[in-house]
Amino acid sequence: MKKLVRLVPILLIFTLLLSACSSAKSFKAETDYKVSDFTFTDQNKEKVSLADLKGKPWLVMFIFTSCTTVCPPMTANMSEIQKKLKDKGIEDYNIVGFSVDPDIDTPEALKGYLKNYQVPDESKWKFLTGFSQEEIEKFSVDSFKTLVKKTEGNDQVIHGSSFMLVSQEGKVVKSYSGVSDVPKDEIVVDLENIIEDGK
Predict the structure, then answer these.
(1) In the chain, how many domains are there?
(2) Most exposed among 5, 113, 131, 189, judged by the fewest C-beta atoms under 10 Å?
(3) What is the mean pLDDT, run by run of 10 residues, along the chain of 199 residues?
(4) Which residues bind Cu cation (predicted)?
(5) Cα–Cα distance between 61 and 159 in angstroms, integer?
């Protein structure tokens, strides 16, 4: 009986330590940029706002449909990341692509572009347009600290090739290479952890 009485405090301490460990956040943010409020149009002609996206984390990329350099590998890489997410049963997220050439990238053009890739679950993808060139150039710098620039007489647009992770609260918390040496497994783990932390 005395042994049992001595064990009770030890068990209580062990239980408290375990609960403290489990309540610790497993995702560590590297940045803390607040995404500016917006309402744009996706590839299905649906309005998508910052408020609509809040509550789930989202992966971000900047693309345009006539891109001949970084956009195709970026989109293929994001599709592979989604396959890994699907294989792990991770569902509570979105993938958001902002067009950097909105005059050309109509909803129909964005929808056609996405069809070129083997996307495991298209319902999670929001390719956004419905803003001016000036708006996207300002929005990309203000919200994501990344450059977008369309030069006169050129059908190609200068833009960043990073993927970014946005939290459930609408803050950019981490960025990753989107073209080469893409840390796909790290992105999956980060997304899994940020979802778990938000529960």
Answers:
(1) 1
(2) 5
(3) 51 46 74 98 99 98 97 98 98 98 98 96 98 98 96 89 98 98 98 95
(4) 67, 71, 159
(5) 10
Please enumerate, by residue number, every residue annotated as part of a binding site for Cu cation: 67, 71, 159
Question: What's the pLDDT at 23?
Answer: 45
Domain-located, residue 19:
no
Polymer length in residues for the chain = 199
Between helix 184-197 and helix 71-87 the angle, nearest 10°, is 50
7 in a structural domain: no
What's the CATH number where 170 sits? 3.40.30.10
Cα-based angle 51, 167, 93 (whole degrees, multiple of 5): 80
Asked whether residue 174 is domain-assigned, the answer is yes
Per the structure, the complete domain to which residue 183 belongs is given by: 28-197
Here the tokens at position 1 are 């009986």
The answer to whether the CB of 107 falls within 8 A of the CB of 44 is yes
Q: Which residues are annotated as a binding site?
A: 67, 71, 159
9/18 Cα distance (integer angstroms): 14
Identify the pLDDT of residue 20: 42
Distance CA 161, CA 159 (A): 7
